[in-house]
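Notebook, bench 3.
Goal today: get a predicted structure for Chromosome partition protein Smc from Entomoplasma freundtii so we can plan the truncation constructs. The sequence was checked against the plasmid map this morning, with no discrepancies at the termini. Length recorded as 992 residues. Pasting the sequence as submitted so the record is complete.
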Amino acid sequence: MLFLKQIRAHGFKSFAELTVLDFTHEMVGIVGPNGSGKSNITDAIRWALGEQSSKSLRGAGLDDVVFSGSANLPPQETAEVTLVFDNSTNVFQKWATPLVEITRRFNKKTRDSDFYINNERVKLKEIQDLALETGLTKSSIAIISQGTISKFAEAKPDERREIFDEAAGVAKYKRRKREAQTKLIKAMENYHRANDLTLEIEKRLPNLERQAHKARLAEAKKTELQQFEKSILTLDVQSYQKRIGEIMEFLPNIETEVRQLTNDLQQSETELNELLKDNSLSGNTISNLNQDFQKLVEKISDLKIQKTAAEEHENQQKQNNSFANLQADKTQRDFANIKNAQQMETDRIREAKNNFDRLNEQYDAVNNKYQNLRQELEQLQNTEGPLTYRLTQLRNQKVRGFDKSQGYQAIINNQKNLPGVIGSLKDLVSVDEQYQIAISAVIANTLNAIVMRTNADVKASVNFLRTNQLGRVTFLPLDTLTPSTITGSTATMIANQKGFLGFANQIVKIKAEYQIALDYALGTVIVVNEYDDAIQMAQTIQNRFNIVSLTGDRILPRGAIVGGQNKTSNLFQTPRGQESNLVDLENQLANLYEALKIKGQALHETKIARDGLRDEVNECQSRISIGNHQIQQYQKQLQDLNNQYLALTGKSLLGNSSQAQQTLASVRLAKEILKCESQRDDLQNHINKITLAKNKYAERQQELNTANQAKREILNNKRSHLTSAQQELTLIEKDNSAKLAKLQADYGLTLETVLNQKVEGFTDEEKVRERISILIQELRNLGNVNYDSIAEYQTEKERYDYFKQELESLFQGMKNFENIIKSIDQEMETQFKQVVDDVNTVLPEVFQKLFGGGDANLKYTDPDNILETGIEIRVNPPGKKITNINLLSGGEKSLVALSVLFSILKVRPLPLVILDEAEAPLDPANVERFARYVRHFTKDSQFLIVTHREGTMENCDILYGVTMETQGVTKMVKIKLVEAKQLGISEQQVTA
């Protein structure tokens, strides 16, 4: 079956130019040397089918899929791959065309990554859907590489089931399950969100319902109130207007009477005021005279007291002057004492500052010494790590050397008991010292190989190693070795190159009878002087042979370079030399530890000295600070004493002056007392005269007060009547205006309309007013009323009913999704079990064909949980009783993995299978068996095989050769088998 018709690649990895591969046969081989770009064909197919992992494409990022340029070609900006598939059997059901072209294009500059099907742009998901339909997915067996084989063979059971999932078509069910789970999660989130909103509304509804009920009740009462209120307000306004007219009629008469009474009373009050004024003046005069009289009496008393005080103060001043003189003398003595103490403290501070400077210099010197010692100690510590690491490496190397030589040594020690043992290659050869590093680099893995006389002799030695579990040893049987050497014109051309020193098999010396072993190991190795010579030689011979320099740098066939310095560069060095290096390192490390100990002790002692000096510096600094504070205290005390002394001396002088003044004051006060007593007697006579006139004014005042009192009572009555009428008028007008304004605002009635309106509809006005009061009180009792709550309650009730319906719908949706997931799980379990059962049916037959016998089967690790169970492979190779695959050799593991994969392919054929060096681990016989078995599947599947094995190439219908005429640029050509053998890698070279 031909499914993949063509591959076109341009700018993808090493396909710099447009490369077209047409497939006309069911089994196509792709061959070429390593590094030529064979696997890039597989990568191109995977990339075009939507592979997103750069690591899976052997790159670090998407830019790595674009051709990066070569010596002759510039870098490309765009990578493009097109796959042309045969759709005549309607494999791609969505695309009803005979051919389906899938294209992927990436532009490095614009970062655009586009997919096309039949030149129609599509999304990545559509490409992945096509891959699922055809089984060409990452986890399927459509692409089998050497890595796939080893990974499948060594995988854990739960990892191994991925391939069976793909074979069962479970991937599409898993995707449907993921989609259903995503929708279920979204439905659950919507359900919880709607439920939260419903609960929130449900909490609010009772309160809103109460508020709405209250609002409707208030509206009903307000309507009833307004019906009664309009009529009552109309009656009130009409009544008020009538009363206002009545008051306005009698109010002017009362005002006239009040004015007349007021005038009469004012005239009487004027006369009375004159009398009061005269009487008041007389009273004021008497009061003023009495005040003057009293002041003279008080002044005379004060003068007498002052005279007595002056005499007493004179005596006290005499005593105070004597005490002040004594205090001034004491203050002078205290001032001198504090001045001396201040000077002593200043001297102590000066001494402390000198010590502070001296200690600071000592501290800096010791601290510098401490820092230098610490740097020296750090340098020694930095040296310790590399030495310790090198010593550990040498010790480990010594141990590893013993481990590696265990089997080899056992063979040598039992040489007499084992037939055909000649000796190790290392013991049989001799190498000049200048070539030892170069030869060691080339045959490191072969140097301890045991040279045997015949192939038959090897079996006894192998059985001896296996029986005693002594590891593995390489044997070189002289009768079956096929040496490869450089001869003829090629050898002559090489010998004429710059830096050529010789062929390794000629430089190394060995007995002639064992030369074939040396030719096998070193026959194609060229020894040159230095690295640059090796590079030039490789270019000349086009990287066909091994080249090694004297320093051990190697250039392998096909261009790989091995360089650097190995820990054991010279394998010919004696164990005694290695032991000497170990002892030298141990001595160096011991000396280093002693130096570290001495430096550490010196550092510790210096730190103690430095810390002691720092404490002394801090103590000096503290003493200076305390001293400065004490001097400030002394300075304040001196200032206080100086002020005290000045005050005392000034007080003494003032005291003497005050004493004289007090004596003069006593004389002056005696004269003043006599003068004031004379003035007192004159004032008393004047007061008596004015008192007689005042009594006459009082009699007339009494007469006027009696008459005015009668007039005032009449006037007050009239005014009271007037005020009552005015207040009544004001209240009626205010109440009337308020009620009229309410009628205008609430009912649109004017004053004229109200006065002309006849009120009807009720007979008992008092009951109506009582009902109005009741309604007003009931409205007050209702408190704050939210009239918007009626509409708000209706809105929230509608929202609540909507969310309740939505919750029911979401709940039903979640049940549906759960049923879908359950159905998908059942379908996946059925499909998976069917595939495993089908594979188990054919696996024994396939296993026997690939192994030439034996048996194999698959087991569930968890039979009760098919959706999560892993897959174990139980095998019994011919002649062995092994059930665990991990106990098999690498080649046997590969055959087991291929048996299972071919069994899957047999029960679930794929239209296209890509084998990328899948048979690489197999020996030639098994390769031939593998290739012939692949041929059985070509009826249902097309095979694209990347290989370098002759057995596989011989069974392919056609071969494509992959070359790199220009470094970094892949070319594809159809070739014959003999050309493929020359272009590919021989199995002997692979084994070597």
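Confidence is low (pLDDT under 50) at residues 397-404, 985-992. The first helix runs from residue 38 to 48.
Flagging this for group meeting.
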